[in-house]
Write a structure and sequence with these properties.
Layout lengths: L1 E5 L6 E5 L9 E6 L23 H15 L7 E3 L7 E3 L10 E3 L4 E4 L6 E5 L3 E7 L4 E7 L1 H5 L2 H13 L7 E4 L9 E2 L1 H10 L8 E3 L5 E3 L1 H11 L7 E3 L24 E7 L4
Parallel strand pairs: 4-6, 5-7, 11-15
Antiparallel strand pairs: 1-2, 2-3, 3-16, 7-10, 8-16, 9-10, 9-11, 12-14, 13-14
The structure holds zinc ion.
Zinc ion (ZN) binds next to loops.
Amino acid sequence: MIRHEYAQSRGNLVYYSYQLFEPFPQISCIVSTRLGGVSEDHLHSLNLSFSVGDTEQAVLTNRSRLYHIVDVEPQSVAQAHLVHGNHIEIVTSQSLTGTYQAFAETDGLVTNVAHTPLMIPVADCAAVAFFDPKQQVIALLHAGWKGVVSNIVAKMVSTMHQTFGCRTFDILVAISPSLGPCCYEVREDLVAAFHEAFPTHAQDFFRLRPDATIHLDMWAALRYQLRESGIRPEYIEESGRCTACHLDEFYSHRAERGKTGRFAGLIVLHSAT
Ligand SMILES: [Zn+2]
C-alpha cells in the first residue's frame, strides 16, 4: 500500500492506495483511515458509517471529504447493507436511480459502469477490491470469516467471468487492512466451520499460540481462495496490516470491543476506455 496525506486546515486526511493499481489511471482504489474527519470520542475521526451511533452530519461531512479526494459525486456511490452473506449485486446503469444506493443483504458489488463508485465500510473484515483492466470491470466485497467460509471470493471471480467475460488470469486483487493472525483469536466452533468448508486445507489457516489459543489467518484463507479461483499470485496485493494492531490509523471492532467506527474500501472506474 501507498500512504497519502491530503492536506486540510485541521488534521490531514490519511488514506492508502495499492501499488498494484498504480499503472491504471482509469481507476481509483483507496482505503480510508480514521484520520482526517470530524467524528468525536471513540469514533475519532473519519467514521463513514451511519450505524455506529455517530451524528448524521459528521458522517456526511466525513464521506464528502473522502469522495472529494477521488472526485466522485455522493449520490453516485453504490453501497451495500452488509450481512456477512455472499450475495453479489451487479450494479448496472439501470439499477442506479441517482439517489443514495445501498443494496439490501449484499456483501459484494461489481460493475463496468464508469463514474459509479463502489464502497464497503469495514472495521476488521477485509474489503477486497478487484479490477480487470481488459474488460474494465471493478468489484469490491466484504469478507469476514463467514464470507470466507461461504467463499464469496470465488463467487465474485465467477460472477466477473460469467457476467462480464473477465478471464481470471487478467484480474488484479487487493486486500485491505483487516484483523490479522496476530489478533484473530477464535473458538473451536469457528475452526469446525472452516474444516467443513475446506476439508483439505483448513489446518493451514489456523495458528496455535503458545498460550493454547487458536488464531485465524484470514489472509491465508483469502489468498488460498483467490489462487484456487485462478487469480495469479503476483496479481494479489495484501495490505498485511492488522486493524487491531494499528488503532492509530484504523478502526477495529475486536480491539475496541464493538465501540468503534468504520473506515472503507472505495473503488471507481473513471472512464471506460
Ligand atoms: Zn494484530
